[in-house]
Amino acid sequence: MTTSFPMNDGNSAYSYFNNSQRQKEIIDASKEMVREAIIGKLDVEVMFSSSKLFRIIDLGCSIGPNTFHAMQHVVDVVKEKYNNINLEFQVFFSDHIDNDFNTLFRSLPMDRSYYASGVPGSFHGRLFPSRSIHFAHASTSIHWLSRVPKELLDEKSPSWNKGLIHYGTSNSEVVKAYVAQFEKDMEVFFNARAEEIVQGGMMVFISPFSSYIRLVEFFGSSLMDLVNEGKLDESLVDSFNLPMYFPSPQDMTKVVEKNGCFSIEKMELTHPKSKLVDDFDAKTFIINLRAVLEGLLINHFGSKIAEQVCERTLLKAEEISTWMKANGGKPCQLFVALKRK
């Protein structure tokens, strides 16, 4: 069963709308790669003899202006490629069913008449009619799993992730469970997109890479601080795991090749320039992560504990800044461009 993991909604101090600077940096850093993929590999012109409508989907669009920023770039590049064709555009946004689409569309540039409505629901499964989509864009969303691997919820399983909330420093059985869930979700995802995307159409992923594992683990250490102080039952931490897997190029190659409907046009680990990293601005980085993770924490621990965890993680800013200095040059983003065969 798919579970919904929306970001902090609204326009508050800790909303994703106001705290997604790092995500915007990732989108900006990938713009030239997206442009190269569209200009060099997109091949749907033959269809324009019967219709001039070009449909784009943004999968895992979340909340706020970043998604419009990314979609505007896609529209502009498609116009550049097909400058001799008077195209009409439809852009659809899809995310978890509980996503705050009201906040999303309040940030819509009002002069952009081609934006379509949001499509709530899991982006892993089918969303659109067969052969209806020309370009799919998934920025910083493909790492979300549809659910926590069920093995991690069984105290008697070797995958019981005691004292930890993710797989970064866990035993191999925990890692295997995460990998298996990722592969299962991606099988559903690629089967759905293979039906929806036209021949010659494209799909682009921009996913966080493994360097983020350590960052989310700082929230786990804050939970354990509360356990050690007697303020939180350890069993609650043992039963909490983040539904996130940061795929490697090998992971992505495996699931794409298993599906068989897409060709890999580009796959690259990158290190996009980041003002937050360059300035070792750990506090802003933590608040950005809070906007992503707080809803999960509230759902499992309640709002009071969730707030304490976030505040305690913010107190670790100096330690996190030291980690950022030591690891700032490592690849932190996976870019993948696929073409529908």
Automatic annotation (TrEMBL):
Protein's name according to its UniProt entry: S-adenosylmethionine-dependent methyltransferase At5g38100
GO annotation terms (biological process): methylation
Family: Belongs to the methyltransferase superfamily. Type-7 methyltransferase family.
GO MF annotation, one: metal ion binding
InterPro entries, A to Z: MeTrfase_7, MeTrfase_capping, SAM-dependent_MTases_sf
Domain of life of the source: Eukaryota
Any Pfam family: Methyltransf_7
Keywords: Magnesium, Metal-binding, Methyltransferase, Transferase
